[in-house]
Specification:
Elements lengths: L17 E4 L9 H14 L6 H7 L4 H12 L3 H19 L6 H9 L4 E4 L4 H10 L9 E2 L12 H10 L6 E5 L2 H9 L3 E5 L10 E3 L5 H8 L2
Parallel strand pairs: 1-2, 1-4, 2-3, 4-5, 5-6
């Protein structure tokens, strides 16, 4: 994971009118669950779930993931998406936890600005994950991949979240861990804060290694 922080690009939204978080890999540490689910699915078909396979699937919706796997395996995309969904639900129920710093940050922000979640995951998985992590109480507004016609990298989920919050996208901050999600938030016209090692490039305005980064926490506290 990259350990550098660059928050200069957040000046445009200091403070933001609202904050919209991605869920998987941003608020909730579900990537190990996703890796376990994908690995099991790949193994059943005699394939190795390697780094290249992981990179091709991170951040995608279930339907998009099914299409990617269908090209690899030759099976039905919808069947693969359903199978992956079942595997993920079981894995999340067994072990998903909030990302370091997520609970404290969400609790603090909810008392100061409107916040929401915009996820590519299906509704049942999003709800289960946030409830399992104890974050649902602070996040009454959530948009799942089932709630929009086009998933990330299309901006629909972020636009829907901003509409539900009653804010203009240009005045809001998106927090993302994947290139797919960063592209979606950028397309919505939001300022994008990337967290983790994958969110670099033209769609990210600022970057922090994690939600519990000291410089990021100071920026939030300074509104």
């Amino acid at each position: 994971m990259a350990r550098t922080v660059d928050l200069a690009g957040l000046g445009k939204v200091t403070p933001p009118a609202a904050v919209v978080f991605d869920c998987d890999g941003t608020l909730m540490d579900t990537e190990p669950c996703a890796d376990a689910a994908r690995s099991a699915l790949f193994a059943r078909r005699g394939h190795v779930y390697d780094d290249a396979a992981r990179d091709s699937l991170v951040g995608l919706s279930m339907a998009q993931g099914g299409e990617v796997m269908a090209r690899l395996f030759g099976d039905s995309a919808s069947q693969l998406a359903d199978e992956l969904g079942h595997e993920l639900l079981a894995a999340v129920a067994d072990g998903a936890q909030p990302m370091p710093g997520a609970t404290d940050l969400v609790r603090r922000l909810a008392a100061r600005v409107p916040i929401a979640v915009a996820s590519n995951g299906p509704r049942v998985l999003l709800d289960k994950s946030l409830a399992h992590g104890g974050l649902s109480r602070w996040l009454p507004i959530t948009v799942s991949g089932d709630d929009v016609a086009s998933p990330k990298p299309h901006p629909a989920c972020y636009l829907a979240a901003c509409t539900a919050l009653g804010v203009e996208p240009a005045s809001a901050l998106a927090v993302e861990d994947s290139p797919v999600g960063a592209r979606a938030a950028h397309a919505a016209g939001m300022t994008v804060l990337g967290v983790g090692g994958l969110t670099r490039g033209p769609y990210v305005h600022a970057h922090a290694p994690a939600l519990d980064d000291a410089a990021l926490r100071r920026w939030f506290a300074g509104w």
